[in-house]
């Protein structure tokens, strides 16, 4: 939750209901990554503002126009994000990606709206085609340097140079974090690692260059020696090992496996089957391992047990 000049970004701004599974599943804040675990729920939010702002939320907001009041509703949302933005500071447009409306907001001081919108459409349509249909009607994209994912809304880079890797990664999170969910405190590899793998596949396909597509993951893995096992709670990682393990080792381990077992298309077919199996469900490491074993022929335990506890 933050204020930047006359813009307000409301994340985790209300009393969020934790999961109750054999007791309350609640952990202390941890700066390594997301430490909260919420389930799907339905939201109705009324807002009244002192003047007209641009409003973007996890619900359907409709036409982009300044407003001072409104009511928005959304179903099957993990947590509810809301941005309240000064219209004078933003350029905005609506573009279509298959059946989903993308509402794109970029800083008025930057000339990046068209490029950001075009890339967003390409990435969104790619993930729908290769992984599976996204059932929601709207995705908001805000170029505020937030580098963060929320249900039906993402914060991306505020400059064109950084936009590609950030925007693609955050869009992929709509599939892995939101539509297939997990406990980010104990299982962060399942959202961040699988998302980075997915976004690396998109960039590899876009340029027909695996080395370039996985450059970010490879660099992360080499940044600091990763942990042996990737499915550790946040409290067991150091700042350096979290980054190198989750954003580096996970996508590179998966890349190495699929390089030897069918390449990019095989990887995307697996992610699609995984998405279909677990959509709107919370998955953990053991469920992933079981699904992986059932999906591929032959015993996969040697591969899986080498990096998953």
Question: What's the layout of helices and strands?
Answer:
Blueprint: E1 2-4, E2 7-10, E3 19-20, E4 24-25, E5 41-57, E6 67-77, E7 82-85, E8 90-97, E9 100-107, H1 113-130, E10 138-142, E11 148-150, E12 153-155, H2 160-172, E13 180-181, H3 188-207, H4 210-213, H5 215-223, H6 239-259, H7 263-278, E14 281-282, H8 285-295, H9 301-305
Helix pairs in contact: 1-2, 2-3, 3-6, 5-6, 6-7
3D structure, described in words:
This protein is 38% helix and 24% strand. It is built from 9 helices and 14 strands. It starts with a strand and ends with a helix. By secondary structure, the chain is α+β, with helices and mostly antiparallel strands. It has helices at 113-130, 160-172, 188-207, 210-213, 215-223, 239-259, 263-278, 285-295, 301-305; strands at residues 2-4, 7-10, 19-20, 24-25, 41-57, 67-77, 82-85, 90-97, 100-107, 138-142, 148-150, 153-155, 180-181, 281-282. The mean pLDDT is 97. Helix 2 packs across helix 3 (188-207) and helix 5 packs across helix 6. The chain is globular, with a radius of gyration of 19 Å. Strand 1 and strand 2 form a beta hairpin. It has a 5-stranded antiparallel β-sheet with strand order 1-2-7-5-6, with no helix packed on it. The protein has a 5-stranded mixed β-sheet with strand order 8-9-10-12-11, covered by helices on one side.
